[in-house]
UniProtKB/TrEMBL annotation:
The lineage of its organism: Eukaryota, Fungi, Dikarya, Basidiomycota, Ustilaginomycotina. Pfam families: UMP1 (PF05348). This is Proteasome maturation factor. It comes from Malassezia pachydermatis. The keyword Repressor does not apply. Keywords: Chaperone. Belongs to the POMP/UMP1 family. It comes from the Eukaryota.
Length: 147
């Protein structure tokens, strides 16, 4: 949700600017080998990431943010600046979950504000282990509060 201003884009752009470094741009001008002092250690992941990036991947990753930004822009155009500010404040307060971090709790309020209350996603009924292997409640609380 970090767009510079109000946008009327309904669909996100296909390509996103990815900082990729070409293998030839990191060569030493005289020796012709990778210059680790100026460009850091060579990473094959960063060199091959651009080739393995599918054009529709950015659209899928940015779909919800673009739709949310479009709805806020429409609210701003129709009702003034107060309506999108109120919506963003409500979403911010609802997104702050006071629940235990080791337990995955569905956030029905956030689903209602985002308009996903009538949809059924696989994450709604299939267990996902996105938090990693945090079975210990004390470790999870320390990680949440930064202790």
């Amino acid at each position: 949700m970090t767009t510079p201003g109000p946008s009327m884009a309904i669909v996100p752009p296909t390509h996103a600017p990815h900082p990729t470094t070409d293998a030839k741009s990191t060569l030493h001008p005289e020796l012709g080998v990778h210059d680790a002092m100026r460009h850091g250690l060579r990473s094959l992941h960063s060199e091959t990431a651009a080739a393995s990036y599918h054009p529709i991947q950015h659209r899928l990753e940015q779909w919800d943010d673009t739709q949310r930004q479009w709805k806020l822009t429409m609210q701003r155009n129709m009702f003034g600046m107060g309506a999108p500010m109120r919506t963003m404040m409500e979403r911010h307060f609802v997104a702050q979950s006071p629940h235990m971090p080791a337990r995955r709790v569905a956030n029905l309020h956030l689903d209602v504000l985002d308009g996903r209350d009538e949809t059924l996603d696989p994450s709604d009924f299939l267990p996902s282990d996105t938090t990693g292997d945090m079975r210990d409640l004390h470790t999870a609380m320390e990680r949440k509060w930064g202790v």
